[in-house]
């Protein structure tokens, strides 16, 4: 089971498309840095394929003024939550 | 679905995971990502690791025939691709959707590759213990 880290906004459609191909059962997506923008309701299409298996990093939301604007379907995790996710999953890969 | 352009039967084996899977997602020339990914592949192979490559997104453009150096003599990545065989890097996979979206037939590429549909790409990633994305 893989933890996928993604740091691009949904404007970079290609990286979301490639992740969709590579995303397996039991995998999880954590949106970090500019990936946070995909956690807004405007980014719903970009992450629809990962429904129920998406989190977004709180610290990066806060610095972008996005806290409180996150789509209800997406879980917000803090740095400790990030560490927990890396513990749960066998490996992590970064998409950029 | 799985098609190959023919030469090595080894390239079809998605169930034979390598030590390292390198995913190449960027086109030649525009950035150094593709070159860096290929550098890592060649170095790992030189240290005896078995390496597989997956071309995804614009990374499939790395496989076009007829590439050359840039207008200011910047080196391309095609010479590195030509060296893969010498380093025993023979497992080359490519996203079928990425090829289709760019109108590239699998048999028009400079190396024999195995094209994979999305579900097989997920399986490929899952089966490899180590994956690096470039």
Defining key terms:
heterodimer; A: 96 residues; alpha/beta; Hypothetical Protein Ychn, Chain: A; five-stranded parallel β-sheet; 4 helices; 31% helix; 22% strand; globular; B: 134 residues; 6 strands; 27% helix; disordered N terminus
Fold topology:
The complex is a heterodimer of chains A (96) and B (134).
Chain A: E1 2-6, H1 13-22, E2 28-31, H2 44-47, E3 54-57, H3 58-63, E4 75-77, H4 79-88, E5 91-95
Parallel strand pairs in A: 1-2, 1-5, 2-3, 3-4
Chain B: E1 2-4, E2 20-24, H1 33-46, E3 51-55, H2 78-83, E4 91-95, H3 96-101, E5 114-116, H4 118-127, E6 131-133
Explain what the structure shows.
The complex is a heterodimer of chains A (96) and B (134). Chain A has 96 residues and is of the alpha/beta class. Helices cover 31% and strands 22% of the residues of chain A. Chain A has one domain: Hypothetical Protein Ychn, Chain: A. In chain A, helix 3 links the parallel strand 3 and strand 4. The radius of gyration of chain A is 12 Å and the shape is globular. In chain B, 27% of the residues lie in helices and 18% in strands. At the A-B interface, helix 1 and strand 5 of A face helix 4 and strand 6 of B.
TL;DR?
With 96 residues, chain A is α/β, with parallel strands linked by helices. Chain A has helices spanning 13-22, 44-47, 58-63, 79-88; strands spanning 2-6, 28-31, 54-57, 75-77, 91-95. Chain A has four helices and five strands; from the N terminus they run βαβαβαβαβ.
């Amino acid at each position: 089971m893989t933890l996928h880290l993604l740091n691009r906004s949904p404007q970079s459609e290609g990286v979301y498309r490639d992740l969709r191909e590579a995303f397996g059962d039991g995998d999880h997506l954590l949106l970090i840095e500019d990936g946070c923008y995909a956690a807004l309701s405007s980014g719903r299409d970009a992450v629809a394929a990962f429904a129920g298996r998406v989190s977004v990093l709180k610290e990066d939301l806060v610095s972008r003024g996005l806290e409180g604007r996150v789509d209800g379907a997406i879980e917000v995790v803090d740095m400790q939550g990030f560490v927990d996710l890396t513990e749960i999953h066998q490996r992590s890969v970064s998409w950029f | 679905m799985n098609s190959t352009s023919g030469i090595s039967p080894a390239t079809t084996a998605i169930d034979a995971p390598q030590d390292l899977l390198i995913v190449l997602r960027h086109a030649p020339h525009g950035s150094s990502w593709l070159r860096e990914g290929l550098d890592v592949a060649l170095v790992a192979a030189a240290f005896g690791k078995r390496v597989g490559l997956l071309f995804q997104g614009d990374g499939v453009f790395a496989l076009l025939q007829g590439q050359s150096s840039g207008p200011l003599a910047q080196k391309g990545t095609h010479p590195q691709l030509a060296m893969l065989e010498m380093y025993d890097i023979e497992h080359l996979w490519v996203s079928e959707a990425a090829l289709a979206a760019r109108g590239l037939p699998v048999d028009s590429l400079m190396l024999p590759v195995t094209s994979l549909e999305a579900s097989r790409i997920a399986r490929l990633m899952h089966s490899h213990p180590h994956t690096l994305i470039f």
